[in-house]
Write a structure and sequence with these properties.
Blueprint lengths: L8 H13 L3 H14 L4 H13 L3 H9 L9 H38 L1 H33 L3 H10 L9
Helix pairs in contact: 1-2, 1-3, 2-3, 3-4, 3-5, 3-6, 4-5, 5-6
């Protein structure tokens, strides 16, 4: 279908989703970037693209894709709110992991000065890093599950809001 309708962002989104399910991440990213370029208001394509970028640990690129959504009217406001939360989670993840690593390093440095107290600080830092990592990836998995199993009503609303294609007969 994408060859017959090269300007249809929804087909590119479904192609990207299929590639992602086949663990062909590079091809999924390419198709999803095309979907976002063709149809910038398609929130599901942008969300899936951000998830692909996050899974490949390219957080700056993910934040850039999220920043590009500003100024466009989304086709699904609830999913757009998920994108806003996802942007906050990426920033939160960076802060929590940075604080945890800093605590680990300070604790390891303090072991030689104060002994066991430094070890406790280091363990707290490690706990912060691991808890932050786990919480972040659970959120990503939740978003991915919602993307894969989109509600029928959301899909029908998306189709209804799409502009009508120009008549082929004209």
């Amino acid at each position: 279908g994408s060859r017959y309708f090269p300007e249809d962002g929804m087909l590119r989104y479904h192609l990207g989703l299929a590639r992602m399910r086949q663990d062909r991440q590079d091809e999924a990213e390419e198709a999803l970037r095309e979907a976002v370029q063709l149809c910038p208001d398609l929130v599901s394509a942008r969300t899936l693209l951000v998830v692909v970028l996050v899974q490949s640990r390219r957080y700056r690129a993910a934040l850039q894709v999220l920043a590009e959504r500003r100024g466009t009217v989304p086709d699904d406001r609830r999913a757009d709110a998920d994108l806003g939360r996802l942007e906050q989670w990426i920033r939160w993840r960076t802060a929590v992991l940075g604080a945890g690593v800093l605590l680990c390093l300070l604790g390891l440095g303090a072991v030689f000065v104060v002994g066991v107290t430094g070890l406790v600080i280091s363990v707290m830092g490690f706990g912060l890093v691991s808890t932050g990592w786990l919480a972040f990836h659970r959120q990503i998995d939740g978003i991915l599950a919602r993307q894969r199993f989109d509600e029928i009503s959301a899909g029908l609303r998306r189709i209804q809001k799409r502009p009508m294609a120009r008549s082929i007969v004209s």
